[in-house]
Design a protein that fits this description.
By secondary structure, the chain is an all-alpha fold. The chain has one domain (about 10-79): Orthogonal Bundle (434 Repressor (Amino-terminal Domain)). The chain has five helices and no strands. The longest helix is centred in the last third of the chain and has 13 residues, at about 55-65. The radius of gyration is 13 Å and the shape is globular. About 10% of the residues are buried.
């Protein structure tokens, strides 16, 4: 069985960064994941977080696309 890399929690910033990395709209990412555009929007704004199968799918998509998310440090964000 293959060991999946940990992407940590899929927060709004990480989901938005993945979507932009893939050069997809919210609607297109939703279609690829089998969910609604509204769901992607709610994830990105932090209203809700993906759970269960959605987190697994996001991780698989991230791995296959070579997505490497490095969150900005708090100090960098304030500059």
């Amino acid at each position: 069985m293959t060991q999946r890399r940990k992407y940590g929690s899929w927060d709004g910033g990480r989901i938005r960064a993945l979507r932009q990395h893939l050069r997809l709209t919210q609607a297109k990412l939703a279609q690829e994941l089998g969910t609604r555009q509204q769901t992607i929007s709610e994830w990105e704004t932090g209203m809700y977080k993906p759970r269960g199968t959605s987190t697994t799918l996001l991780t698989i998509v991230a791995e296959r696309s070579g997505f490497n998310y490095e969150p900005m440090m708090k100090e960098q964000a304030e500059d």
